[in-house]
Amino acid sequence: MSMEKEITELVTRIAQSKNFAGIFMTRKEITELMTKVATDAALIGWCHAEDMTRNRLEKKITQMEQEMNILQDQMKSLELDLLSAQSK
């Protein structure tokens, strides 16, 4: 789910809560609500950033493993070339 959609659902869920629907709120209650929404939204963003970082690192590890396999193949080829050159 996209980060924007999760935040929209969070706001909608809190706005429809019976604790806040159709009542007047004090300045303190509004501040507490805004703090809760901002905190939860920041956590949603942090979770998405962690997922993106994990995916990026997994791709980098896969790429490095492929490069390592290529280098190992090249080393084997060079070893065979060296052995054949020594036997001549």
Description of the molecule:
The protein has 88 residues and is an all-alpha fold. The chain has one domain (3-87). 84% of the residues lie in helices and 0% in strands.
Number of structural units classed as domains = 1
Amino-to-carboxy terminus distance: 64 Å
Extract low-pLDDT stretches. Answer: none
Estimate the strand proportion: under 5%
For the biggest sheet, the summary is:
none
* Rg from alpha-carbon coordinates: 28 Å
Shape: rod-shaped
Helix-strand string: HH
Helix count?
Answer: 2
Structural class by sheet pairing and helices: mainly alpha
Helix content range: over 70%
What is the β-strand count? 0
| Mean pLDDT over the residues | 87
Protein topology:
Elements (H helix, E strand, L loop, with lengths): L2 H13 L11 H61 L1
